[in-house]
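[job 0412] stage=fold_complex status=start
inputs:
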Amino acid sequence: MRAIVRGIGWGAAGFALGALAATAAGWAAGRPPRAEVLVTLGYVAGLTGWLLGVGLWDAWARGWFGLPVRHEPDHTWRRYFRFTTDHKVIGVQYLVTFVVLFVLAGAMALVMRVELAAPGPTVMSAGAYTHLMSLHGIIMIAVAVATILGGFGNYLVPLMIGAEDMAFPRLNALSYWLVPPVAVLLVATPLAGGFDTGWTAYPPLSEVNASGQVLFNLAVITFGLSSILGGINFLATIVGLRAPGMTWRRLPIFVWAVFAASLISVTATQYLAAGLLMVLLDREAGMAFFAAARGGMPLLYQHIFWFYSHPAVYIMILPAFGLALEVLTHFSRKPLYAYPWVVGGFLGIVGLSFVVWAHHLYTSGMRESLLGPFMATTELISIPTGLVFLAALGTLWMGRLWLRTPMLFALGFLFNFLIGGVTGIFNADVPTDLHLQDTYFVVGHFHYTIVGGMIFALFAGLYYWFPKITGRMYDERLGRVHFWWMFLAYNATFLPMFWAGVHGMNRRIADYPAPLAGVNLWISAMAVVLGASVVVFLWNAVASWIRGPQAAANPWGARTLEWQVPSPPPEGNFPHPPRVVGDPYAYGVPGAAHAVVAAAGGAGEGGG
Amino acid sequence: MAAHVAAHPRYRRLDLRRLGLWLFLLSEGFLFSALIAARYYLLGLQRPEGLNQPLGLAITVVLLASSLTAYRAETAIAGGDRPLFLRNTLATVALGLLFLAGVGVEWAQAFAHFPPTRPVGTVFFTLTGMHALHVLSGVVLLAGVYLHGRRGRYGPGAFWPVEGAVKYWHFVDVVWVFIYPTLYLVTA
Amino acid sequence: MTRHAGWVVLLWVVLTALGLVGAARVDLLPVAAAREARIIDDAFRFLMLLAVPVFTFVLAVLLYAVAAFRARREPPEDGPPLWGRSAVPWVWLAVTSALAVYVIVNPGLRGLAELRSDRHADLVVRVEGSRWVWRFVYPESGVTSRELVLPVGRRVRFDVTGVDVVHSFWVPAFRVKVDAVPGMTTSVYVTPTRTGDQAGDVNFRVQCAELCGLGHHLMAAPVRVVDPGAFEAWVAGGRSP
Ligand code: HEA
Ligand code: HEA
Ligand code: CUA
Ligand SMILES: [Cu+2]
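[job 0412] stage=fold_complex status=done
writing structure:
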């Protein structure tokens, strides 16, 4: 806690310094700077102050000045509130932070649904709705990008590859501690008038609206930085820190998924930062990137934005694919079917994801000659994605399906994501998208891919690794209740959105024509039921964490490395580097082993 | 780091750092590619009128020369020749500052020809400004390396900060090799 | 093995039949009042026809696996090690690739070509979106209106632009949509095929379909498709404001 207080103090001081310097410079140049410029420059200095204060100075920056770095080992709960470099602590920090944000933005969605339950204003103004909707969108996007990748990625990748930590532990802590300012800024946007652009922040609107937009842009650029640094860390870790014998062919599929997603984070994210920076430059320095009145081109933003934000949906879903396949394999008691094909599919998705962005621009007025090519590339993505389904079905086939809660969520993931993916084809088809663009059909599509896909996979992972992370077992009965409740309510909420969209319900509106009242009321009612299912999870998680039964090291009998160490794993993970000797998924192969993990006492066989 | 880090060649710290740096540079490359793409989107093949061509060429030469001195600094420390290393690091810093001064002059002149509030100025000032920011951070890094170097912090086999700063410097240089023709040369 | 596969195929056929019947019974699409709407609806129905069997295939395998291969408690032994080194992945790849390519061509490229096939216009309407109203200008007659009135059966070209921020011109009953972007003019062609107005069906409306600020939801304008005679009369009445 002391670290956080100091971070806040240094951050405030930095902000004041930055703003003062900007004012001084402005006066010197004869032009007092506008408040938004002050906030922007103050924020840059304030963010630096925050990072240094929260731990960067002690743990790292002192070294640049020839001073000894300080870090006191900490084994109490306080380490979760400090600049801790242990990847497992950071993983938990990510998980808890983003689950909290998920619940917060989910609660916002419920308020939105109350407003939408009937046409006309019900509980808030249309303006308030727009702000709330925009906030829900961007927070959930952050949740989708970072929860599995930042949470499980950090916790599990070093364990699964037999390393003792990430390649750059301090950089890793830095990536995490960039997140709180993002959350604070976003939640603070209403104080500065909010932002009414949705999560996409299209100019010129984002250049002429309230100052909340500036906070939004700063927050999202910061988030992008965190995502880039995290990606670099994952790639370096996976390339450089694999245990002896952990060849690329033996890499657990979740690690491959993190690898693929990180390739995207490291590269495409810069476009998001660049686009939002350009908006700030237009706004605060009067530049002319997108401001049509000054000769700029609004469409340029859309190209830059989607050059990131399309690949970003695969940053969200690739780790989810990896996670779901991991769970499906271990609970089917069979090797992951067609493993090399899945890896090829992941990499194919990464490659294709860079050349499909304009499918968000079919109706934007971009050059007509681009429609056909982008439709083609977009629909080709179903081929590598299909390979994931091939692997899933092949793994289930003839398996010994153990239907525990993680498995249920993984199966639910397959069902939901399939609907999301297939409706993606309707969007990708230019003729149908001319109608569907900006309707609830699209809202349905992406809640099916993200909520039905990524969030279901997240829950699969939360249940699957709960015993590993907490050392305690969750309540299986409550887990099942949660699954069935959520699965049914989820489909009841989002399936009718496709119908509403086709029938003229457009997105991002607080009000709609009267004939759409029935379907909206139904959606709203089901959304509340859906929200309540999450309470079951929260209860289960908190109660089991506090007083669940002690969990064994490997309650699932799974073969990958994280299960061959105690629950929770000790600091440093492995007393000696494990030696990887075989496939991680060789179920049903007599005598096969994945790795030799020397236990504290002596050598023991892993897996089997 | 625990014992087994040293035991396996895979775990060598240097390789990881180098890899991390390359990944960072790859990422930065995407940032500049976004800005360069924006330039072509907004202006097509139109060339900004009124650029100071001799100055542009001059600062390009200065920056290229600084890569050479940076390279010599790195090889010098690798070979254990500290005075040569220090001299070349200092020269690199000086050339970097010279480049920045040139950009400053160019900015003052460009302001008159195309204000930043029109697309041409927008593109010019953003591209050169973002690049200058990177040059500036490179100068700071190299200056830090110089100061530590004077205190004898590096020697053969232990000069990662030098290598890192120099790699970064080369990268900044290569980016300019793309920006220079994009702004000064390309024309319909 | 073959016995299992047989059941899956049976399940697939049954589910597909159910799905197709279901899709045919739900009222999938709202009123279609333009030539473009027919092309787009055809594409939509055709995609539905393809989507159902893809969906039900995965579902059939999934459901069957859960039903037939489930274990009551922790399975005492592992399943057979199938690695997928057979021809199955190749077949899967071939089939999905063929499907994907087919969908690109039909209804994708074919529908696109059809939509773009007729580039003549009997009538031009300039559409201006500003926060938060639509304005329709009929340049040939000089009429300006807040209501979009169109003659049935005539080919119309809309020249769309945004005054302040990006808006989007969308008439659900026509199915087409194009953004109203400041600094550029975008076009879309429509041939209304059926008379009607917003009072009769809410899908006869111009709906702004791009978030344009706090009043975005207000930005709808009525559409009235009338007989050519009535249209001439309307134009004549509107010429002198
Ligand atoms: C995790 C997130 C995620 C994922 C994975 C996807 C996946 C896909 N998306 Fe989606 N999409 C979003 C999140 C996601 N999307 C979001 C958030 C938006 C809205 C943004 C906004 O405007 O706010 C959006 C919007 C969006 C649009 C723009 C709609 C519009 O605004 O007009 C389009 C258009 O092409 C599209 C297409 C696709 C396609 C083709 C896929 C494909 O990847 C799907 C591929 C999968 C399958 C097809 C199923 C499995 C395959 C098989 C079983 C093989 C056999 C099948 C065939 C051969 C068809 N998406
Ligand atoms: C991870 C991504 C994600 C997730 C999980 C969700 C979850 C939900 N979303 Fe969201 N949504 C988006 C991403 C996501 N959404 C995005 C990107 C947009 C686009 C924004 C834009 O257009 O710019 C969007 C837009 C969007 C819209 C369209 C708004 C509009 O266009 O006007 C709607 C409308 O129904 C909606 C509804 C819901 C609902 C009902 C849920 C439900 O699943 C929520 C379930 C509920 C909970 C999880 C809450 C549980 C909490 C409680 C019950 C409170 C308990 C309290 C305490 C313990 C203190 N969302
Ligand atoms: Cu105009 Cu929305
Ligand atoms: Cu996309």
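[job 0412] summary: Chain A has 18 helices and four strands.
[job 0412] exit 0
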